[in-house]
Amino acid sequence: MQPALVALAVVLAATVAGFHALWTHLVAVITTLLVLAHDGSDAGPVATALGAATVTYLSITIGWYGVLIVRRRDDFVGRAMHGWPKWIIEHVLVGCGVLPPGSTVPFDETGVPVAVRVAYHLLDLSIHFFPTPYLLQTYGHLVARAPVVYACLGFAATRLWCLACSLHDVSLDLSRGLGGARLRRRAAPNPQLFLRGALFSAIYGLVPPIADGAIWTAYAGEVGAAVCFVLANAASGPFPAAAFRRLGGADVVAPGTIVAAAAASAAVGAAFGAWGAATIFARVFADNAKRR
Fold first, then answer.
1. Which one, of 39, 20, 52, 205, lies nearest residue 140 by Cα?
2. What does the mean pLDDT of the chain come to?
3. Would you say 7 and 109 are in contact if contact means Cβ atoms under 8 Å apart?
4. Residues whose CB is less than 8 angstroms from the CB of residue 252 and which lie 6 or more positions away in sequence, other chains included
5. What's the mean pLDDT in 123-136?
6. What mean pLDDT do residues 147-157 have?
C-alpha cells in the first residue's frame, strides 16, 4: 500500500478514536494525502474522494473567509492566537517542567503581537485559499462528472465530522507532565450535525470561546455555497470541466504558480511565526523573572 494511503488510514483512525483536528486542517491533510496517492486515473476511490475534497474545499473557503469578513468584530484570529500559545505554555511546557508553574501567555486576544497575526494570515492563505483554485483547475474535471453527488459527499463528510466530535472527543492532558499524561473527554456526548458551543471553541483553540452566531455564519457560508452549487447545476445542467478550471483561475494563473505562491506564503508565514514565538517567549521569561 502507498505510504500516503497508510498515513490517510492513520489520520482517519485517530479521528474515529476521538482525536479531532480542526475540520479545515483535517480536510487539508486528507486532501494532500489524496493528491499524493492519486495515480492520475479518473476512476476509483481516490479520484472520487478528490472530487468530493475539491467541492468541500470550495465551500470551506467561502464559509471561512465569509466569517472573517462578516464577523470580524468577533476576532476569530485573535482568539485562536491567544488560545493556541496559552495551551502550549500552560498545559504543555509548564506541565512538562520546561517553564515554571504560573507561566502564562502574556496577552489577551486583543493584544496578540502583530507578527503572530501576520504569520496566521500567511499560513492560512497557504492552507485554505491557494489550494482551492489549484484543486478546481487540477481535479475540476472529476467534479464535472457528477457535481451534485460530489457536493453531497462533501456536505455529508462535514456533518460526520461534527457528529463524531460531539459524540466522542478526547484530548491529551499534559498538565501533570509526560509521566502523568492522560486522556480526558472535553465534553459529554451531545449529538450535533453543526458543531458549536464550548466544544467547537475547545477544538479550534479559541480563548475566550466564540459566540455561536459567528459559528452559524461560517455554516451559512458553507451550506449556502453547497446549495447554490447544486441549484446552479440543476438549473443549467452539469457544469463542464472547463467551467471549473475557469473558476479556479485557469485563464489567469497556472497550477504550478499557485503551488509556488502557497509555498512562498507558508515560508514567509513561518518566518513571521518564529518572530512572533520569540516575542511571546521573551515576554514570558521577562514576566517570570519579575515574579522571582
1. 52
2. 88
3. no
4. none
5. 93
6. 87
Number of residues that this document lists for the chain: 292
| pLDDT confidence of residue 289 | 79
Beta bridge pairs of residue 171: 184
What are the residue ranges of helices labelled H in 110-239?
A: 114-124, 131-143, 147-167, 197-204, 212-236
Which residues, including other chains, have CB under 8 Å from residue 31's CB and lie 6 or more apart? 50, 53, 57, 131, 135
Q: Is the pLDDT of residue 188 over 90?
A: no
Q: At what angle do helices 147-167 and 3-17 cross, to 10 degrees?
A: 50
DSSP-derived letter for residue 209 is P
φ, ψ at 173 (rounded to 5°): -90, 115
- Per the omega criterion (within 30 degrees of 0), is the bond before 208 cis? yes
Q: What is the pTM of this model?
A: 0.89
**Rounded mean pLDDT of 147-155?**
87
Number of CB atoms found within 10 A of residue 155's CB: 21
